[in-house]
Every structure is written in C-alpha cells, then in structure tokens.
Amino acid sequence: MDFASFLTSLGTSLIIFVILMLLFTWLSGKPGNHEIYFPNRIFKGMEPSSRTRNPISWIKEAVSSSENDIIAVSGVDTAVYFCQEIIFNATANLLMLMFFFPAFSMMVLAGIVLLPSLLPLSITDHSITQNNTTSNGTFSELDKFSMGHIEQKSPRLWGHLIAVYWVSLVTYFLLWKAYKHVSEIRATALMSSEVRAEQFAVLVRDIPPPLEGETRKEQVNSYFKAIYPDTFYRSMVVTDNTKVNKIWEELEGYRKKLVRAETVYAQSKTIDKPEGIRPMNRIGFLGLCGKNVDTIEHCNEKINGLITKLETEQKVTLRDKQLSSALVFFSSRVAAASAAQNLHARMVDTWTVEDAPEPRQLIWSNLSLQFYMREVRKYIVYITVALMVVFYMIPITMISAFTTLGKLVKLMPFIKPVVNIAPIRTVLEAYLPQLALIIFLALLPKLLMFLTKLEGIPSESHAVRGASGKYFYFVVFNVFIGVTLSGTLFGNFKDLEKSSLTKIADLLGKGLPDNATFFLTYVALKFFVGYGLELSRLIPLIIFHLKKKYLCKTEAEVKEAWAPGDFGYATRVPGDLLILTITLCYSVIAPLILPFGAVYFGLGWLVLRNQALKVYVPSFESYGRMWPHMHARFLAALVLYQVTMIGYFTLKLFYFTPLLFPLLIFSLIFAVVCKKKFYGFFEHTALEVVCHELKESPNVERVYRSFVPPSLSSDKLDGDHYGDA
Amino acid sequence: MDFASFLTSLGTSLIIFVILMLLFTWLSGKPGNHEIYFPNRIFKGMEPSSRTRNPISWIKEAVSSSENDIIAVSGVDTAVYFCQEIIFNATANLLMLMFFFPAFSMMVLAGIVLLPSLLPLSITDHSITQNNTTSNGTFSELDKFSMGHIEQKSPRLWGHLIAVYWVSLVTYFLLWKAYKHVSEIRATALMSSEVRAEQFAVLVRDIPPPLEGETRKEQVNSYFKAIYPDTFYRSMVVTDNTKVNKIWEELEGYRKKLVRAETVYAQSKTIDKPEGIRPMNRIGFLGLCGKNVDTIEHCNEKINGLITKLETEQKVTLRDKQLSSALVFFSSRVAAASAAQNLHARMVDTWTVEDAPEPRQLIWSNLSLQFYMREVRKYIVYITVALMVVFYMIPITMISAFTTLGKLVKLMPFIKPVVNIAPIRTVLEAYLPQLALIIFLALLPKLLMFLTKLEGIPSESHAVRGASGKYFYFVVFNVFIGVTLSGTLFGNFKDLEKSSLTKIADLLGKGLPDNATFFLTYVALKFFVGYGLELSRLIPLIIFHLKKKYLCKTEAEVKEAWAPGDFGYATRVPGDLLILTITLCYSVIAPLILPFGAVYFGLGWLVLRNQALKVYVPSFESYGRMWPHMHARFLAALVLYQVTMIGYFTLKLFYFTPLLFPLLIFSLIFAVVCKKKFYGFFEHTALEVVCHELKESPNVERVYRSFVPPSLSSDKLDGDHYGDA
User: Fold this and answer.
1) Do A681 and B349 touch (CB under 8 A)?
2) Where is the CSC1/OSCA1-like N-terminal transmembrane domain positioned along the sequence (chains A, B) (predicted)?
C-alpha cells in the first residue's frame, strides 16, 4: 500500500463517518425514531430528546455528563467500562504527547532531563537508503517516521529504549490509578444506602443429601439457623424448573397471541363493519394445516387449561424437584457479605457459599451442578477454547470443504435448479468459503458464551466476563499475532521448530514493522466506520421500522421491537483491548499509530457515552467486577509489547537490549502487587463497605420475593406456601 | 559392602538397641529418674510410673493407648503426627505384605486377579551372570532380590510395572483416608465444648494510621464495633515491648537469684551454725570483680528499684508504643472464626485479619511487620533457602578452609602451645573439617527456624511448619538425591548439561540401585540407634543428674533441669519423610527395604507413643495444621518415586515405560482434588464446627487476660487500666 492509497482509504472512511453522523443528527431529531435513539431514557421515564436541533448537542451532553450520571443511568459496570476507555485514551494521549512534543514531556518529567523525541531521530537518519526500508520500499513516506528507518547498532536506538521504559512506566502509573479509582466506584456503589436484593442473599451450592425424613428446606434452615441464629432470615431451595418453565412459556405465548388477536379484532371493527372480523387460525403444524378455529376462543380455552396445569406443576416442582442448591437470605448486609466469604463445612466441596448475583442474571440451570462436575467442565472448556484459539483454521477449512457446491447439492437436492444457473453458480462458488468464515466469526462470541455457560457459572455477568476473556485471547492470537507472523512464519518454518521465548520475540520483532500500515488502516476503519454505525444505529432503525409496519400489532410487540439490549461487553471489551494491544506494540516502532489510537478511544468515549446515556439498557450490574479482567489483559498486552520490543532491539543488533529484561520482571511484580492489594475486594465484599446504615430498614420479604422465578410465582401460591413447600 | 559386613552392621545396631532398651527398663524403674522418664505425667499431676516392673509394660501401654488418650495428654498435633506414623507404617506394611505374600494381597484385592510377586520374578531370572550385577559384584546375595537382577527388555518387568501402579494406588488410598481422618480429629478438637482462648480472638495486622486526635485503641474499637455491633468484645493493641521485656527479664533474673540465695542461706543454717552464712557476691563483670555485697540484700534492693521502673515503663509502653496491629476479642466462637476469614477493608493490604494463635505461641515481635515487608522478606528467605539447599557445599567448604589449623592459630594465638603438641595436632587436622560439617548440620534446623521467623510469621507453630518444610527439601535434596547421584553426576557431567526431566529421571534410575545397600543400613541405623537413644533418654538423664547435683539449688531450678521440651516436629517430621522417600523409591527396585521401613515406622510409633504419653510436653497446639504440609511432601516423595521408576524402566529398555506417565498426571489430579476438598478447613475454621454449644458461657475477660504478655501484666495495672491505656 503506498501513501496515496493509504490517504484514500483514510479519506473514504472519514467521509463515511461524516455522512453517518449527519444521518444521525437528522434521524434522531424525528420523534418517530425516539425509540431507537433514546430507549434508555424512555425506560427510565425521562424526556427522550433534548430540545435543541444542534448537530453537536449530543457531544456536549456526552462531555458534560459526570461519572455519577453514568452510574445513575447505566450502572457501575458501564462507568468502569468508561474508566477503561479513559485510561486507554490517556495512555494513547500521554504517549502521543511524549512522542510529538518532547518539550512537553520534559516539562512534565523534569527528572528525566532528556527524553529524546523519537520522530526526529528517525527522520534525520539518512544512513538507510530508500530501497532498504522495512515495507519493501512501497510505503517510504510513512516509513520515514518509523523505527525501521534507523540503522542497526545506531546509538539513536537509545532514544527508543528509553521510550520503551517510558511507555511501560506510564502504563503502570495509569493502571494503578485506574484500579484504585474503580475500587472506589465499586465501594461507593456497594455502600449505597439503597436496598439491593442481592446484598441480602447468598448462593449455597453442593448441599449434601439430607438426612432421612428431613426435607431440603428443613436441612438448609436448620444448618444456617445454627450458625447465624440472629441474622438468618429464610431460604429458597432451587428446584428443577424445566417442566414448569415450559408450561409457563406456552402460557405466555398464548397470552401474547390472545392480546394480538384481540387487537386485530378491535382494529377490524371499522364504522362500516361494527361487528368486525373475528381472527381465525389453524391449529396444525405452523398454523398451515389442521382445523380452523376462532383464535380468541381457542386462546382463552388453552390459557385456562394451562393455568390449571401450571398450578399443579408448580406444586409438584416445589415439593418433589428440590435440588442440591439454595438461596439463603439474611436480615443484614454485613451478615450476607460475611456468610459469602466464610467456610461453612469441613469438606470444602460441600456447602459452598458465594455472593448471590442479582435475580435477573441468575442462570438457574447451572445452580445445582455439583462441585467436581463444575471443575471438570471448566477444564474441558478451557482446553477446548485453547485448541480453538490455536487451531481455529481447521474447523473453518472443514466447513469450507463441507460447503462446496457439490456437497450442498447432494445434501439438498431441491436447490439444484437454482445452482445450475451460471451467474449464481459463479457467485456461490466464489463466496461460499468466505461466507462460511464470516458466519463462523460472527457466531464465535455466541459459541464462546455457550461454552462459558457450560462451565456451570451461576450468573450472566460472570459468563460475560469469561466469554470476553476467551474472545480476547482469540482476537489477539489470530488477528494480531496471526497477521503479524503469517508472512514470517511460513517463510521461516524451519526456524520455528526450535521455538523458545527469544525465538518468538525475534519473530514478532521481524514481523511487526512490515504490518504497521495495515494496522494503521485497520484502526482507522474501526473507529470511523465502526463508531459511525454505532452512533447512527442504522440497522436497528431499519429493522424497527420494518417490524413496526408489518409485524407488530400490540404495544408489547412494539416495545420488544425497539428494546435496545445492553452494551455487549463480551465482544466490545476484547475489541478495545485488541486496538490497545496494537497501539501499544507499535507505539515505539511506528509512533504514527498513536494519534490513531487516541482518536479511536476518544471517539469511542464520546459515542459510547452517548449510547450509555440514551440507548443501551444494562441487563445486569456486577459492581465493576469486570475490571480485574480488563486489568489483567491490559498487562498481558504490555508484556507482549515488551517481548516484541526485546525481539526488535535484538534484530537491530543493539548491544544494550538486555536492559529491557528488568521491565518484564517489573511487570510481573506489578501484576502480583495489584492482585494482592486490589483483587480481594473484587472477589468478595469488604465488610467495612457494607456496614453503613441503610436509608430504610430493609424489607427482606420483598428481597426474597424478587428472587422467585416468574414461572413459579403465582397469586395463589403466596410466599408462605412457596416457602414451606 | 558385602553381605557379611551388612549383617555385622545390622547385628551391632540391634545389640546397641537391646542394650539401650534394657538400660531404659532399669533406669525408668528408679524413682530418682522419674522426672526424666515421666515429665509429662508429672506436669499433668498424674502418677508418674506404672507399678509393674515388667520390661515391656511400656509397650503394652503404648499399644493400648487410644487416639483420644493421646489428644488428651499431648494435643491434636501429636495425634496428627501419629496419623503420619500410622499411614507411613501402613504403606510400608501393605507394600511389604504385597511383595512377600502375594497370596495375601490377592485375597485383599480379589479384583486384581494376578498381582505377581516380584521377588520370585527376580530370583528365578538367571539370565544375568553374577559378574554383571548392579553393585559391581560385591553384594551379590542381596542383589538377587533386586530389580537390577532382571534382564533388559524382559517381560518379567511387567510385574514391576504393575507393582509401581500398586504402590501408587495404595499411597493414594491411604493418603485420602488419612486426610479425612485428620480432618475429623481437627473438627472434634475445634468443636470441643471447652473454652479455648484462641477461638475467641483474631489477629489484626496492617492497621492504617489513625485519624488525627484518635488513639489506635479508639480506631480499632470503632472499626470493629461498626462491623460487629453485637459480638465485638474488646481489643488489645500490640505494643513495642522490647524495653519493658528487658526490664522484666532483669527483674525475673534478680528474683531467681534471690530465691537461690535464700535457699543457700537456709541450707547453711545447720545445727552447728544456727545463724548460717549469708551468701555474698561481687557485682562487677560476671561476678568476678567489683564490690562484694550481701546477695539477698542486693537482690531485694534491685528488685524494688526494678519494680518501680517496670511500672513506669509499662505505662509508657501502653500509652506511647502502640503499633499497627491488634488482637480483637469476640464474645462468640462463630463470630471470631467468621471474622478471621472475612475481607474487612477495600485494600487487601490493610486491616488483614487472621486466626489468633494461642497466647503462648505468639511471636510478638513479628506481629506488627507491614504487609509488603512480610512479602518481600518471604521471597528473600525462600531464595536464600533455595540457594542453601542447592549450594550447601559452598559455605561448608568455606568453613573448612577457614578452620584449618594455620588460620585458627593466627586468629587465636593463645592456642598455639596446645596445637604444637604432635598427637593433638594430628587429630585436629584430621577432624576439624568434619567437625565444621557436623556443627553446620546440627545448626541447620536452628538456622532454618531463624530464617522462617524472619518471614514475619505470627505464631510458633506456623514457624515450625515452615522450618520443617525447608528442612525436608534440604535432606531430600542433599542426603537422598545427593548420595544417589554423587557418583553418577561426576561421571557423566557432560550429559547433565542438557538436563531435562527425562535426563534427571535417567540419572536417578541409574544411580539408585547402586546405593540400595547403603540406604538399607542407613534406615536400620536410624531406627535401632536413633530410637534406642530416644527411648532410653541417656543424654538428658546424665545432664539432669549433673545439673541437680552441682548447679540446682531451688525447686524451680530443678524443674527447669528436667523440663523435657516438646516433640521438635521441625526436625522429626522431615526425618521421617526422608525415610519414607527412601522406602518408597526403593520399594520396587529393591523390595528388601520394605521390612526395614516397616520396622522403622512401627518401632517409631511404639517409642514415640511412649514419649508422647510420658515424656514430651507440647509447647503449642495448632489443631493439626501440620498435616497438609506432611501430605504435600508425601505426595512430592511419591512423584519423585514415579519419576525415578520411569528413569529406571527406560534404562531397562522396557517398551511399555510410557504406561507410567498417566501416574504422574493422576498424582497431579490427586493433589489438586485433595487441596480443593480438604485444605480449606486447615486454612480456616469451618463455621459448622464452632457453632456447637459451649459447656459454660465463656468468660471473655479471662480470655482477654490470657493474651496479656507477662511483662505487661501486673497486679496494679488491672484489666481496665491496660485496656484503656
């Protein structure tokens, strides 16, 4: 790619972004689109749109909103996510400032008297001829700014060496500050005087079999009453809800159908035809065959039948399908927080207790998995994911092989006539493998989430953290290292056989500079097009309008159509971390990437702040437990960067390369100290935080009820009934 | 060593043992020796000796004593130690049975239909000629029984392979049972209805600086009162006691001196001289120079002066020398056990809380070491010990070089005339280096204990565990692996350069069989002479009688002279583990070692049970927290054994050697499962255990007082005074 085409691609992206932003300004002004652009506000019962028509008013709002606004509207997790954005941006900006304005950095760190600017160092080194640049002479203008332009063994490399230290120190400092800050946010949220259901409950798993003639309920109650005579409130034994859930879903389906049929019937009562047309449907397969019945009557009939069935099943479930786990409720927050940390039984694999997640994010089906089952599953999933990360090309190749036209035709003979048309055949043959790859990549987060849930994790937020971590390793390994090494790897396959740390460092050092331009473009594309689409929400808008027009009949259906979903941390965080890894790794080799990184995180902060305030509705609150994961992966990126630099300096035959090794050791110490100091509070709730007074004395009965799953709650089955079953 | 000399050495050891046992029977019958042979009984206020004069009555008593007797007399730790002895013995016995009576093992494990006896397999293999045995033909009779007698690639090796599996499985099974049993002992002790001071207290360290105008005491009280409003009782801030301790010791010294002087004076009042002789002493250096004073008057004077000084210093200490740690007392066991496990502060490096040890085993000077200081010290100590283990020869060589006669004479010219006498010179020259080695080895446990205490550990029992672990690695590495490899190592030094796991396994496999006889003799010597001396207590007896005759004047001094001390787990446990490692590693290669191992642990069980019941007085009670350490090291020995066997089978060119690798993986899984299942309860106190009712409602004030160090407790300073200072 030469300089001109780089500029072209950058320009195109910018134009797309501007168009998308203008579209956003225009579309978000229309009241009919408010459900798409301000759903979170509508949910919170606030005024959807600001009055002004100013195209940049959203930027003003985003900038002027404080962290507390974010916490109030979108929860602690989102605020923590912004901490990430801020620290990423700060890293990029601080480094950029340092590289482009050495004077500024000298002012800031007067101690380090001479922090040489790397760009002048690179540009003024004419000892390497144009033909000899790292990108094989095709991109010489940009290469001038890179470290590849510097001669081997040149003393100018000292500047770059100091820069590596500087980047690392800045990162340590910012990470430390951020961890401290996030820890404070978490503490503030946990010590809030609001009554939060999950703060009064703990989740008990691996309950041993009850004694003869004792119900689970009695067993759990007597066990906890003995230990916490004053603070134990009551318990809720987890039941096997599969059957009752199925009935309940069927019932809900018929209820929706009934409302829809009634709406349709009401709409059909025009002035001309005051009696209207009663909607009819067939009760056979997919409504295509079978007897034709009056929908309203049919639904009412079904609903009445199902309600009786549900009530019977509820009773059976509560009585006979009790499983080996329970939720236990306490009358004070301190007692619950303390119980979640204590060892209760002698054998650690029985009566395991942990913090209860929010009711809405409980994964009921995982709650009663046994201890060793969870351990075994965990390791199986880890191994599976590790194999997937390393050998992800293999299933794709298999899918590609499977999706050749010949095989498809064999499997589905009915598509043969279509395939035989020449132009369609050509297109299909060309795109089927790529399509398979794209579909696989699109399904990957879902697959990882599925695998993570298989581990037996009890809460959604924990599953999101797990899936996010797995996805991070996947993208870093395959996108970043894959792209970097692919050329080098196949060229030097023999070298790889004796692979060792220094070998890998060498390979990274060799491969990285060649791909600087690719990643520059990648980052630019990501922020211009990615954030443009994010802000303009074109696709949800189109889908919403289509649905509203052709499918939705009732209020509830319309609401469902514009429900914005949540932030999707499972893919968003790894995506950001990938950009961060790229920016970090190139920061010294090709400092030109820094402004791109800075714009990515700056723009991201702006756009996502807008989305957090107005669009996305958080689906859970984990009080910032995502942070330690981000922190660990940020550090992993830093270590990758340090290893890469060691490789690159070795390649430049710089004698003082070993001076970089202490950095690796320091990273390790930093990681250990951070973990020792901060991590405990993210794992458990510190008691000093929850011992603060509450605004009102908590209604533990209400807390208890909020945990009853909808399929088991019923007007007839009052709390006591449920409890004593 | 040939067979005859082996028998001779065995016979000599046996004769020594019999003599020592007879001596014991004779000496322990004399009432004047009761303080040496029954001190624990005397302490407990029981009848010292049993009536019978039967020489084996002690064996009867030892055998008939139950585990509960041991716990009652000597505490849980001792009972756990016997669990170790039993399981070691069971391992050895089970394996022995299996090797020598295959029929028996077949009966026991009917499932494994044909567990071939290894000895017949070895003896009947005549394919290797006598000249070709592993011990270079010098020890052919014993070699016949060993695996070295079997031809390479022989299918008979299948028998040995199965034996390796059998040994491992027996070990897993016994370890599992033992861990479960120890866990029960611990639980029973912890749930006992006696009031034990340490169960009501927790140790709080790393308290942050108090606010302006707040004392430490107020800070601690308000902090814990907020979190535990109902169960918090009071707190005791740890103070810097160095100065007050010094004064107190001086005071105690003068008090002892006074009692001694009074006794001497009373004894001097014979009928002839009813006024007696008032004892006098000089008050200068070592009582050799200075003014001659009347001792009783002088002591009284000093004591009065010191009491005033002590009181002033006590007040100053309590007011001004408060440090950043405290003991916090709760009114219930559950509250204390729960508090010790909870995270209290957001930052994990402040307000760290742990179970309080017993008052008698608190290491006061370590209590207020800061968190990071402890971490840093820990790693420094670990590295130091690791270096010591690996390079222990270096300081010894240095000491040897230093202790040549020439240098000694230079340093201490006054010994010159002695050295110049020819025979003394010869002896000194020959033995000085060895003497240095012996002194170093004798000092090693003390050195390791000193290093362990430097880590900042708060309790004696924990320090003993730490020192014991370090000593284990030292003896296994230097005695076992050192002896085994020394020949092989120096011979094949070039091979070692590319050292890897298989390489080490190879080396072990090569070296082990050559040393079988050495270790046979070693084990025999250990049990015959070691346990003979242990039982007869000759050295303490002699020392006691000498002291009683020439030094002791007062009752207290006599008591001090016969105080038996405790078990000394720090060296005893690693010693046992070394023998176990040897027995395990040779169990298949030279099964003849098994009866020796069995006798070692059987005799050990008998002798030490006698000592536990009658002699040693435990100096602390840690409720069996030693066990996980023993367990881990037992497993380490097992893994070492498995690695050795892999090496040995490789050496025999047996094709199915890889079949042994699953054992290593299984050992790993076993270790992880044991840790997950059992370890938690040894780290913390399970709440279900301590929620049992107490016999009487606890007097927490008395609990509190038991923690006041003697130098700070005083009749004048009543509890409140102390508390409110």
Assistant:
1) no
2) 5-177
What end-to-end distance do the CA atoms of chain B give, in Å?
A: 71
Phi-psi region of A653 (alpha: psi -120 to 50; beta: other; left: phi over 0): left
- Within 8 A of B226 by CB-CB distance, chain A residues are 688, 691
φ/ψ of A55, rounded to 5, equals: -65, -20
Partner-chain contact B685 A349, CB within 8 Å: no
Q: Cβ of A691 and B375 within 8 Å?
A: no
ipTM of the complex: 0.79
Assign domain B197-241+321-357+695-724 to its CATH architecture: 2-Layer Sandwich (3.30)
Q: What is the pLDDT of residue A242?
A: 86
- Neighbour-count burial for A480-493, b at 16+ CB within 10 Å, e otherwise: bbebbbeebeeebe
> A-chain residues within 8 Å CB-CB of B184?
346
Which among B187, B347, B349 has CB closest to A346?
B187
Q: How close B691 gets to chain A, by Cα (Å)?
A: 6
Does residue B488 contact residue B510 with C-beta atoms inside 8 Å? yes
CA B245 from centre of chain: 28
How many Cβ pairs closer than 8 A exist between chain A and B?
A: 100
pTM above 0.90? Answer: no
Six-digit token pair at B105? 């093992």
Q: Residue B386's Cα: distance from chain center in Å?
A: 19
C-beta atoms of A348 and B679 within 8 A: yes
Q: What is the mean pLDDT of each run of 10 residues along chain A (725 residues)?
A: 69 84 81 78 70 67 79 78 72 56 36 40 50 41 57 73 83 86 87 85 91 87 90 89 88 86 80 74 69 81 86 86 90 90 89 90 88 91 89 63 63 69 68 66 86 91 91 81 57 47 64 70 78 82 83 78 80 84 80 76 81 82 86 89 85 82 93 91 89 80 86 58 44
Work out the end-to-end distance of chain A between its first and last CA atoms, rounded to an integer number of angstroms.
71
Return the ∠ at Cα B57 (arms to B55 and B63), rounded to 5°: 135
Q: Which residues of B touch A679 (CB under 8 A)?
A: 348
- B688 and A187 within 8 Å at the Cβ level: the answer is no
Cβ atoms within 10 A of the Cβ of B2, count?
A: 15
Angle at B291 between CA B286 and CA B292, to 5 degrees: 85
Instruction: Please name the residues in contact with A648: beta carbons below 8 A apart, sequence gap of 6 or more.
Output: A147, A508, A509, A512, A513, A589
Extract the tokens encoding A87. Answer: 């620290």
pLDDT tens for A632-691 read 988 998 898 898 888 888 877 778 888 889 999 999 999 999 998 999 999 898 998 888
Six token digits for residue B296: 């009783």
Task: List A294's β-bridge partners, or say none.
Answer: A280
Distance CA A603, CA A89 (A): 10
Contacts of B371 in chain A (CB under 8 A): 676
Residues of B in contact with A188 (CB under 8 A): none
Least CB–CB distance from B343: residue in A341, A375, A677: A341
pLDDT at res. A467: 92
- Quote the CA–CA distance of B448 and B386 in Å, as a whole number: 11
Please give the single-letter amino acid code of residue A330: F
